Amino acid sequence: MSAAKRIGEPILRADRISLAFGGVKALTDISIEIRQHEILAIIGPNGAGKTSMLNVINGFYHPQQGTITFKGATRRRMRPYQAAAQGIARTFQNVALFRGMTTLDNIMTGRLLRMKRNFLWQALHWGPALKEELEHREFAERIIDFLEIQAIRKTPVGQLPYGLQKRVELGRALAMEPDLLLLDEPMAGMNVEEKEDMSRFILDVNDEFGTTMALIEHDMGVVMDISDRVVVLDYGRKIADGAPDAVRADRAVIDAYLGVPHE
Amino acid sequence: MALVETARSVALPVGRGARDRLDTFPKLLLDRAARSPHRPAIREKNFGIWQSWSWGDTAREVQELAAGLAALGFKRGDKLGIIGDNRPRLYWAIPAAQALGGVPVPVYQDAVAAEMEFVLDHAEVRFVIAEDQEQVDKLLAVRERLPRLEGIIYDDPRGMRHYAYPFLHAYEAIQEQGRRFAAAHPGFLAQEIAKGKGDDLAVILYTSGTTGQPKGVMLSFDNVIITAQNAIEREGLREDEEVLAYLPIAWAGDHIFSFAQSYCAGFCVSCPESGATVMIDLRELGPTYFFAPPRIYENILTQVMIRMEDAGWLKRRMFHYFMGVARRAGGRILDKERVSPKDRLLYWLGGILVYGPLKNTLGFSRIRLAYTAGEAIGPDLFTFYRSLGINIKQLYAMTEASILCIQPNGEVKPNTVGTPVDGVELKIAENGEVLYRSPGVFAGYFKNAPATAETKRADGWVHSGDAGFFGEDGHLHIIDRAKDVGKLRDGTLFAPKFIENKLKFSPYIKEAVAYGPDRPYTAVLVNIDAQAVGNWAERRGITYGGYADLAALDAVYDLVRECIEQVNRDLAREPHLAGSQIRRFLVLHKELDADDGELTRTRKVRRRFIGERFKPFVEALYSDAKTARIETEVTFEDGRKGMLKAELKIGDAAIATPAAPLRKAG
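Above: the input entities. Below: the structure tokens describing the complete assembly.
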């Protein structure tokens, strides 16, 4: 599978990030690179700082120390909407969709940043605005086809089972055509079959669109199967970074998961 | 269009004789493309929009594919396997293979790799056209054991980028090769098409294998075209019919209705977006001509009933009141019989308030003709649709003979399968088996002379394997499979399917398997409908963990018992079946599944297999035991196997007293 895959230069570089909430150190001096077209898994025991790391990357948290370089631009403070505008999309640990809206509408919201016409034009729904909407609708339809959710196109997402909601959320993130996609526990709470489906979609997205992905996941089987590289965090520190097989054999990682006492 | 033009200009000099009789599908296609090139031939919903191909487009696509196959080396007599959902390209593969004198062999798309291997090996398939990665993966898994298989063409390229096998071809690539081949060999295809004759082998359709291994039914062009044509004439089908093709391509019914009749009558066939969207697509399309096995009608009715139970008080009252009116008047109005002016008025009002919106929701607003076949349909189910003004009719057909009987308009009854269509002769053998002769009778089973000889006897009569009789009205009645009709130990007639179908009319019962021959009484294994019963439990605030848990609830046993006792009351009314009422039953802890071999791919129950598999249950039904234990092997969706242990209760049902005749006057 990875024969034809071309992992490229780092697209995002987090350099010596430290983040603390009051006296609680969430992240300590962490440096991570995410390379173009790769699937990077961030793993670690509960409270290791995985979600904090994603939040730093997409500008939701502002680290006290360290810098983020994304597509060549270095920054210290950024808002989530700026991150989104620069091409970082994410999904959430708890599904964060518009529950009353249909699958299609939810995915269309992912296209909003790419719509050029202003509110008035869109309200008019005519001429250039209509043309634009049709183009975006077509893109949304391609995602619906890709994720095989045609049957729920017009179903309000609140009525969908959890596994499908997760898929819709992935669809909305894809609608942004992101350069970097952050997935926070895309398979949490799923059964084996749903996990298999989701893994396949993640691999397919990566394969078809070359989307760079960083994901947090607890299911080790899934992580080892789908990721190109694994970063392990423990108590806010990076303890390992490498290919899945190397990480699996790493002493520090095994200790962290088995719970060796810390000083 | 260019290819159509060349084909036509080359076809003409071959001589009028060859074009006089449109006796093969490729000839019919070229003729359609010449006469009405812009009429829609096939549609598919893609990216949320219905895409159409006209007859002209279709002819071009088919010729490009045929030329591409020729470039691969596909020759006269070769077999082309077709595997996948209803997709235009897979339908085009049928005439494309036939254009070269080859034989299409459609395979059930949900068959597991081993089943697929049997059919492809037995049919000596040289090339396969498969829908997507899923099907290609299955083929790759068994390819080593299929030495004759030389090439696989896939339609959907998704996920296929890294499959670097020399024998694997993208559809577009073959099409491209076809264009080049056609340019290099002008006239080749037209000559090949002209060589085809009506008595050539047109298609091999594998039976679903209710008993044992599937058999390959060989049908000639004449078989298929003449029967399709006869049915078209009898029913007055036109080129503006709308049809949804959603049943397996490998099934004879779909081959006749979605393919053969479309080519003969010129109507457009629409392919749904995916298997999961059929009901949505049905509603959008509003077909005028619809074909479904009873199961589909059952599912639709179950959905309606569930939704009505959840509806508000006023809607529910209105629904039940007007359905009562419909039951009284609807069927009679459809059959143009006399109906009182009051009922006529109420029915008209019901049409506005209930039937119209309901039919619209189901996608049945425009239906002129709906068929059901394959299995007997519950009379109540049948009446439900007819009372709504949907002209649903039963027909009797077999893969081996296409259509045998259709109910004529105005003579539609729930318990018959109609009168023979033109050219069909029927008679009943001494043992009650239905025998027939017709122009649609198959050439034989492929490479299975003993089975052919057993079915197609020397005197020309074909044995259907069904037990039936002719009623006074000249209609054929089918009771059951001839070999399944048996007798209880005391000699009472026992027709298992008759009982099972009556049970299955309840929305709560999905499958039932009846046992009885040589036993003291009838007993059944029941499969509840997870959706309907789940809904029922939720409304009553009953909690449950999963399917097995739900099935074991006492409340569910009571629910099933009610259904069974209703069936017993119905049976008590039938003089010769009253003795076969159901005494004991058991609600199964798992859904019967084709992957576990319990159902055929057309979802008929395999009674004997289930009897073996759940032997402890069946034995317990005929003992005094209150419970039965079992360990069964199940196959998960991903192909892994596991053991399922269960201890189930056995329920008893009350027997209804046979009606009136016991008390004589005076």
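Note for the figure: Residues 97-175 of chain A form one domain.
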